Amino acid sequence: MAETEARGPWREAWSVFKRNYAALVGLGILALVLTTAIAGPWIYPVDPFDIVGAPKTPPGTDADAVLGTDYLGRDMLAGLVRGGRPTLMVGFFAAMIATVIGITMGALGGYYGGKVDALLGRITEFFQVLPALLFAMVLVMLFTPSLVTVTFAIGFVAWTSMARLTRAEFLRIKQLEYVRAARAIGSSNGRIIWGVILPNALPPIIVAATLATGTAILFEAGLSFLGLSDPNMMSWGMMIGSNRNYLREMWWAVTFPGVCIFLTVLAISLVGDGLNDAFNPRLRTR
Amino acid sequence: MSQPLLEVADLRVHFPLKKRSVFSAPQTVRAVDGVSFSVRHGSTFGIVGESGSGKTTTALAVMRLLDITAGKVRLAGEAFSEFQGEQLRSARHRVQMIFQDPYSSLNPRMRAGAIVREPMQRMNIGTESERADRVRGLFGQVGLRPDQAQLFPHQFSGGQRQRIGIARALATKPELVVCDEPVSALDVAIQAQILNLLGALQREYGLTYLLISHDLGVVQYLCDEIAVMYLGRIVEYSTREALFEDPLHPYTWALLSAVPRMGRRRRGAPTEGASRMRLEGDPPSPINPPPGCRFSARCPFAESRCHAEEPALREIRTGQRVACHLVRDDGTAPHRPPLL
Predict the structure, then answer these.
(1) Start-to-end Cα distance in chain A
(2) Which residues of B touch A176 (CB under 8 A)?
(3) In Å, how far is B283's CA from the nearest CA of chain A?
(4) A10-283: which CATH topology?
């Protein structure tokens, strides 16, 4: 008896994903972080740059600043609530830039091969051997540190692994018979690259892009820690960076934003792992 | 019926190999090295040979899915091998292909109906509703239910997938259908179904097939004319009757005697034991094929002339050509045991 219910590959993947508890936990944390980042400023409308109390107030001692204050007397909770948005935005958009560059380079190299592949491969290698954080620092310092420059700087240094992954997938898929069949029915190169091969190469790329978001968040935290971030935007990394000199006196000022970064990146990794399992047909138990 | 649908003249497909070092001479793989044949309207032409004989490369070159090094492919008198760019793209609906592996020939992200509809969309054939009707019709013709058009390839069995592949190949009403090992990836029971389907479709719609196979049984069942390939060249080119009843080339002879069979012996085929011909070794490399006859290195009857001079394909009798020095013009040869 053939089943007549049409279950697409995406729905099939979801049915595997939702059986993975760790991935669901990750998804839950991520949803919480996202909700806070989006709706937080309305729920807790305190400006994170306002001085609300005495500097270095420990958590739980001041009703106006439940999680304490930083070295200038700014509300920690306000910082955490507002800090999620720039952190996630940089992470998301930087990963997107990296993915777009990586897919383009990898797809063209893998599909056309030969001289195109050699040229794009050299360019990829050039970017790969540059120390990523240093290169991103240089890029940010060349322009004024802002959310946009930080995002682009991270995107520009993080695309190489995506390019290699995409290229490998294209090399594998382009020799499958359905690609030949697509050419036999008169599909153009562009259509074969973007309409036939890319959709089939997407699952591992999505996993890598998810994990790249986590990496980009860590990068952003690193740059902020070093003082290279938008000074008008309170981000978690910046909170750690500006309070780092007082680490021994006030554990809370670096711990809370650190925990936020940790949980967010962990959640993204768990989701990425779950997606990896969901898209891997060999792990499927039917 | 005067002009053949497909004419292939002196087709060559060579692949350059990467140089090992700057100083080494460039090497080329001569996958197909001077192959000529023609296929009549409504007939089935078979190409048989072992792995590496160049039969699939020939098929892909005819489909213009590989670059042709030299030679001509003419389709209904037109120089199909000279077509370029948009002219080639828009002519592709005239030749379609049924692929070997039904598990990799269908895009896993497309529904079966969309797979069959896509060739018509790419080629701008018909209106949206005409295409939908044709998809429904094709599903019926290949023995699938119309409601299965909703399903994705992984929800079908191998035989059903091959039926989808056949429907896709027929969607543009092609003049020539190239079948590359259409059943070799399927179970034996399913093979028979698919072969019967191919035969029925041919009778009903007057299709012309170019069939690539290593399976002599498949070839005998479907083909009107057969070319036997060895190392990029045709060694024997005959009608089905002549090839199976009176094979001339030692290689064909070896191929036929290698077919295991039960019970009734095929007429003219060698008897068990004494006249069974076994080949030693592997085919030589197509990078530097030996001078002379390409089969000479494995041919048990080879003489000095075979190692020096390449035999031409010559007609022994109507509908039977062979490339072998040893076959005399009257069709006798030292390797042939007397016919029963």
Answers:
(1) 16
(2) 104-105
(3) 25
(4) MetI-like fold (1.10.3720)
